[in-house]
Every structure is written in C-alpha cells, then in structure tokens.
C-alpha cells in the first residue's frame, strides 16, 4: 500500500519490453497463446482428451444406444459453444480494427499539458476500430452510412479515446435524442426491414421532424457516406472538447484525422454491387494493405478556440451539428498516426475493444457540448451489457500504465490484488491521491452560471445555414451525386407523407436540388426557394480538396485481363511496373486454369495461371483495368459478353482503363462512344480516362509502363 504509485508508473513504463511503440503489443503478448496443430487437445481444465468426435454413449457394433450426461468433455464443448455470442454493439456493430502508432511532430504545449500531445519524443501505441453505424454485425461494408473512426491511445498517463466518425457533424444536438434517431434509422420494428440502410420511411420521417438533422443528412447523402476504403476517409472527433495547459488555461478544440492517401469514394452503383459481391470489401482492404506493408497514415490536427472567444461566432461552438469552418479556424496539424499491425484474433480484440468518450488524460477535458456529456454516460453503460463489469480488465482495454484502486470483484474479475485492505484512507501509510504536479487528473476550475432548465443557447435553434454552406461548397459532380442519393432514398419510402414533405424540405436548402429530387420521387415540385440561400461557401468541405499527399497508386488493385494469345511482353512489363509501384496486380483470365501467351507452345507450365476468372471477380473489385494486346486474345474477349460488361462497367464507374495493340479495337467495341479518342500509332492517347497505344515498340513499351505505373494519372 505504501508504494509510490507515480514512481512505479515511471519504472514500469521504462521496463516494458518492445520499446515505446511496442508497449501495448508486448502487454498483449503476456496473454496471447499460439496454438500449434501439433498440440494435443485438452479440456478447459487441462486434461488431454482421447476422443473429440463421439459423445460417450451406451453402444455396440449393432446398436447405438443413448448418450451419457456423464460425458463432461462433450458437455463442456456444447456449453462453451452455446455461449459464444455476446450482444452486438447497439450501433456500430460491424467493424474492423488494427494496431498502430501515434507520433507527434509539433508540441501543443501552448494549449495542453497532455503528454501525448506535447512530448515529441514519444511513440504512443494505438488501436483503431472503423465501423458502419446502422447495420448488424453481419451486414455489408459498402452501404450508404456514416463510418465510425474510434481511436484508443494507450498513453503513459492512461487511455485516451477519440470516438469519432468520418463526418464532422451529427444528427442531433442533445444526447437525450439518441435512442430516437437510432430507432428511426435502424430496421423498422414491425418487420425488421431494411438492413443497414437509411432508405426507409422512419428515418426520413425522423429527420423531417428534427430540423437539427438537416446539416448531417446533407453529409450522409454526399459521397462521404460511401468511402472507397477506410484508409481513404477523414476522421473527426465531432464533439467539442477542452484542452488545458500547464497554466490552467482552457481552449476549445475539435480533433481531425486527414488521410495521406486522400479522400476517395465509390460511386453508388459500385457500392450497391460490392455489397453483394464482396460484403467484406472494406475489412479486407484494410487487412490486405497492412499485410502488404502499405500502412495507412493520417495526419492529426486540432482546431483551437481560446475560451474567451467562445461566443464570437454566429453558431454555438458546442453544437455538434455545426462544423468550425476551416477558413475561420484553421486546422493545426501536429501529429501522425500509422496503422501497421492486424489483430491476431477478431473477437478478443476488435469485438471486445470498448471505447468511451470519457476516457481522457490530464490536459484533455469535457466541454459543455450537450451531446458529448450524454455520450460519456452511454459508453460506460453499454459496456456492461456487452462485456460485463470487468470490461476494463480485458487485455485490449487495459492501459499500459499501472492501475491501482479499490474497485473490486464483480463477474469475470481476474486481477489478483495482494494486500490486506481495500479502502482508503487506511492505517497503512496510504498516500493521498496525487496532485496535478504528480500527474493527477484535476478538473480545472470553471465558472458555471445559469438557470436549471431543459434548454440550450439560442444559437442551437438555427439549423439551415451550414446545410446550405455545405451544399454551396460542393463541386458539380458531388452535387449531382447528392441529388441522386436523395432520389434513391426517398424512392424507397412508400409513405407519401414522407417523400412529399422531404421534397419540400430540400427547398429550404436549394431550389434546384429540391426540384430535381421532387420530380424523380414523385413529390410536389417546389416553385420557390423557401429560405434564401446565403450564397456562402467554405473551403475543405468538398472532398475534392483532400487529394493524396503525393500522387500514388500504392495499394491500389489493378486488373490485367487476358485470354489465350495475349501479348506477353506487355503483360509482363505492366505487371512488373504495377508491382514496382507497390500496387497490386491481379491477372483476370477467361478461366483460372493456365492461359497461354501468343506464340507459346501451350505445354502445361508455359502459360500464366490467373488469380481469378472473369465470372469470379467483377470490375467493381478493382481501381483500374489494363488489357494487353494479342490478336487471338482480343478476338476471344470481343466475343465474351462478360469481358465487354467488365470494361463497360469499369468505364461507367470512372476507373482508369488502359490497353495496347489490338485492345484498342476491343475498347472501340466496348465503349461505342464516338467521342472517345483512341491511339492509331505508338503514341499514347488519353481520352475519358481510357489510355490507348495502338502499336507497341520497345521505346513505347517504356511509356506504357510509365502509364501503367501512374494508373493513367487518374487514381
Ligand atoms: Fe456513439 C458506439 C461515434 C453519438 C452511444 N459511437 C460508437 C462508435 C463510434 C461512435 C465510432 C463505435 C465505437 C467502437 O468501435 O466500439 N457516437 C459517435 C459519434 C457521435 C456519437 C461521432 C456524435 C458525436 N453515441 C452518440 C450518442 C450516444 C452514443 C449521442 C448516446 C447518448 N455509441 C453509443 C453507444 C455505443 C456507440 C451505444 C455502441 C457501442 C459502444 O458505444 O461501445 O454507447
């Protein structure tokens, strides 16, 4: 009891193996077992089992008699199996997680005393879980939805969680409304339909009734809600937090994650198809990238407003349905996160990880954001029904610094604490709780005044300005996608009250948008803008303003289509070039068994064994398509409906497409668009994202390879 906890912390932290960044992994290693197929199977109580295939029963060669309850081995297996499932998360049930490292390149000590945000020599281990919100654990990845972006920092001062999303605002302002919005967006109660979609009456009825949701539904109808990859989306803390520095000064803060690969989305038709073709698309994408060493990275930024400036804006900075426009409050990028290790087992790590907005370390604090305060109750509470009272002890949730307190017992407790007392103060020289100087979490004094009432500041009542700001700031294609998304969603609502009212509501934002949608979904076409558009725009709302840090095709999936008689020189050169750029080439053949190049003897072993065949994988799984020439190969592909569909679909989804030699003819046939220019010689021509080269000479081969490497410059 008399041990000095502060000193203990420092010593334990120093002595952890694996260095700073390996600290959490080293900690997990203490509970990780590697099971070898050579190990003998035992019961849970360690006894080797002699037979794991047959239940003990009364039987003979000619008679199979009743089974015996006495077989505790068999009962143990069934008993364990019966209880494998735990309740899935009530929201964000489907997710994928990975480990990584957070590094700080600029100290934020002017605004906070948090070690993780001030000590540039540290590498803080993190665990990140990405998720969809609406669907259940087995739903598809590419549905139209908000994505969760939850980060757990295992800092030397304890765990800090930023439980964020890929969209910077939220549907509601007050956490008391959370059960309603979640009930409304989840499958309807009478028939549990639809799964993982907001395209139904109840959701659109809810957001119509809650004008505060207007800004958020503009974001969820935008391309942000159908990301290409978890690795290509921004993350936001969404809520307003407080940073406190050593002088005790408070600053309001919003947290940002900006991906190195840029922000990219699928197109809706792709998203719909992938949901059926590969429901695990995002999960696999993250896994594959990490396994291939293409570690995803995000810059970490803060937007900071000094406490004294809280009321200087025309919106309330504590309102989670509002962004802090970056033109007003620039993002200061101070750190970087890299994800570099996949989980060893999904359930104990990704499923059992428990994030809580109230997990904060000294220097980071709650603001009076009414959504945040309710959240901080909810996250703690929900872990009880998911994981039980001792959820903090689960290896993935345990901090890397020592834990010492008198919380005891409860179901599933497995820490064994030695000592005679379990209360404080006590007769054994118990030290008092630490002071701020010793690293304690002390709430900075804060003057609170007001009347006790169920109300919020007047600025919370304005719900449209930023919805218009967002719409005005989008590019034309993004606006078109938005209109298409509303039209899809409202078409799925069969109660006229819902789609008619919503058609009207859109006229509060933009008349053109409202008219396009109303016409398509059969709502009354609004004649005039019901709320004048202020005409303002802001930067960094359109995702086109987040290109990759540097152009790259690293980790992108490139399909190379071949049939017998393909041009092997081009095929091999392009494949090698794609690999050299750290992208992933996939050979797609007319069949998966060997395909032979032009002039080959067709003896087994002389051809190429494709990774997939045209029916097994569709164009939706790839970022770009390349077709090498070869007269016989192109003849076969030209006659294949599936091959033509592949190319047309890739073209329709705006993929980069390239081809050489006879492939030019295949493209003319597939795209049949007179506007598309194609090459007629050994010069590369790019038109509508299709790059062609009709003749390949040794010199031009080099150019083909460059084009292949740059993914036609379109990725
Ligand atoms: Fe929440 C999970 C993000 C509002 C209550 N939320 C959850 C997760 C994320 C978010 C990323 C998944 C964490 C994981 O991977 O385990 N939630 C948000 C954001 C919000 C938000 C960005 C708005 C700023 N949430 C919110 C409110 C409440 C909740 C207002 C309740 C008052 N959220 C929960 C929850 C969940 C959850 C029910 C389900 C599983 C869990 O917490 O651990 O407690």
Automatic annotation (TrEMBL):
Its EC number is 1.11.1.6. Its cofactor is heme. One of its GO terms (biological process) is response to oxidative stress. The keyword Ribosomal protein does not apply. Gene3D superfamilies: 1.20.1370.20, 3.40.50.880, Catalase core domain (2.40.180.10). It catalyses: 2 H2O2 = O2 + 2 H2O. Residues 522-541 are annotated as: Disordered. Heme binds at residue 379. It is an enzyme of class 1 (oxidoreductase). The active site is at residues 92, 165. Keywords: Heme, Hydrogen peroxide, Iron, Metal-binding, Oxidoreductase, Peroxidase. Coiled coil: none annotated. Pfam families: Catalase, Catalase-rel, Catalase_C. SUPFAM superfamilies: Class I glutamine amidotransferase-like, Heme-dependent catalase-like. Catalyzes the degradation of hydrogen peroxide (H(2)O(2)) generated by peroxisomal oxidases to water and oxygen, thereby protecting cells from the toxic effects of hydrogen peroxide. Belongs to the catalase family. This is Catalase. The gene is CAT1.
């Amino acid at each position: 009891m008399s041990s000095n906890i502060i000193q203990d912390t420092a010593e334990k932290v120093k002595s952890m193996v694996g260095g700073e960044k390996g600290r959490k992994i080293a900690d997990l290693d203490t509970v990780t077992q590697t099971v070898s197929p050579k190990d003998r199977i035992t019961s849970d109580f360690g006894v080797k089992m002699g037979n794991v295939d047959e239940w003990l029963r009364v039987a003979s060669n000619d008679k199979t008699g009743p089974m015996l309850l006495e077989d505790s081995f068999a009962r143990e297996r069934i008993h364990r199996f019966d209880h494998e499932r735990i309740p899935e998360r009530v929201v964000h049930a489907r997710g994928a997680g990975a480990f990584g490292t957070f590094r700080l390149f600029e100290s934020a000590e002017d605004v906070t005393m948090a070690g993780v945000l001030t000590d540039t020599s540290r590498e803080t281990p993190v665990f990140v879980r990405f998720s969809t919100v609406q669907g259940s654990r087995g739903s598809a990845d590419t549905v139209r939805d908000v994505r969760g972006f939850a980060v757990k920092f295992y800092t030397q001062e304890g765990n800090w969680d930023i439980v964020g999303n890929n969209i910077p605002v939220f549907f509601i302002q007050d956490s008391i409304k959370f059960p309603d919005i979640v009930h409304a967006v989840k499958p309807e109660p009478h028939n549990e339909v639809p799964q993982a979609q907001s395209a139904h009456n109840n959701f659109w009825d809810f957001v119509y009734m809650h004008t505060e949701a207007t800004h958020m539904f503009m974001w969820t109808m935008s391309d942000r809600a159908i990301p290409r990859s978890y690795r290509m989306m921004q993350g936001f803390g969404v809520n307003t937090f407080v940073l406190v520095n050593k002088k005790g000064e408070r600053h309001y803060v919003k947290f940002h994650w900006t991906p190195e690969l840029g922000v990219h989305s699928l197109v809706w038709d792709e998203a719909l198809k992938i949901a059926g073709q590969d429901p695990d698309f995002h999960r696999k994408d993250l896994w594959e990238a990490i396994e291939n060493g293409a570690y995803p990275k995000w810059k970490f930024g803060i937007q900071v407003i000094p406490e004294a400036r809280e009321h200087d804006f025309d919106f309330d900075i504590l309102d989670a349905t509002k962004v802090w426009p970056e033109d007003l409050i620039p993002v200061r990028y101070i750190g970087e996160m890299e994800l570099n290790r996949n989980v060893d087992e999904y359930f104990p790590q990704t499923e059992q990880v428990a994030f809580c907005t109230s997990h904060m370390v000294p220097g980071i604090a709650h603001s009076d954001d009414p959504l945040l305060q309710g959240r901080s109750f909810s996250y703690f509470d929900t872990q009880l029904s998911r994981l039980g009272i001792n959820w903090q002890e689960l290896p993935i949730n345990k901090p890397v610094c020592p834990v010492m307190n008198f919380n005891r017992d409860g179901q599933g407790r497995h820490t064994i604490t030695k000592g005679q007392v379990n209360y404080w103060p006590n007769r054994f020289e118990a030290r008092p709780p630490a002071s701020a100087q010793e690293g304690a979490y002390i709430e900075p004094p804060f003057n609170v005044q007001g009347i006790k009432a169920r109300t919020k500041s007047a600025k919370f009542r304005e719900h449209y300005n930023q919805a218009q700001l967002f719409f005005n700031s989008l590019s034309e294609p993004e606006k078109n996608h938005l209109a298409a998304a509303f039209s899809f969603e409202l078409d799925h609502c069969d109660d006229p009250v819902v789609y008619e009212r919503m058609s009207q509501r859109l006229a509060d934002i933009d008349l053109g948008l409202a008219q396009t949608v109303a016409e398509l979904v059969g709502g009354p076409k609004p004649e005039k803008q019901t709320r004048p558009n202020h005409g303002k725009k802001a930067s960094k709302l359109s995702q086109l303003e987040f290109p990759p840090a540097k152009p790259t095709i690293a980790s992108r999936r490139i399909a190379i289509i071949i049939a017998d008689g393909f041009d092997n020189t081009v095929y091999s050169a392009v494949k090698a070039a794609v690999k050299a750029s750290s992208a992933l080439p996939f050979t797609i053949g007319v069949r998966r068994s060997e395909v032979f190049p032009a002039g080959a003897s067709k003896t087994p072993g002389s051809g190429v064994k494709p990774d997939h065949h045209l029916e097994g994988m569709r164009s939706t799984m790839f970022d770009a398509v390349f077709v090498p020439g070869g007269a016989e190969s192109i003849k076969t592909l030209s006659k294949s409906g599936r091959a033509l569909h592949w190319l047309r679909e890739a073209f329709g989804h705006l993929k980069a497409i390239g081809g050489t030699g006879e492939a030019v003819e295949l493209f003319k046939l597939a795209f049949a668009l007179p506007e598309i220019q194609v090459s007629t010689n050994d010069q590369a021509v790019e038109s509508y994202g299709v790059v062609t080269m009709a003749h390949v000479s040794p010199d031009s081969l080099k150019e083909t390879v460059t084009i292949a490497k740059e993914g036609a410059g379109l990725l």
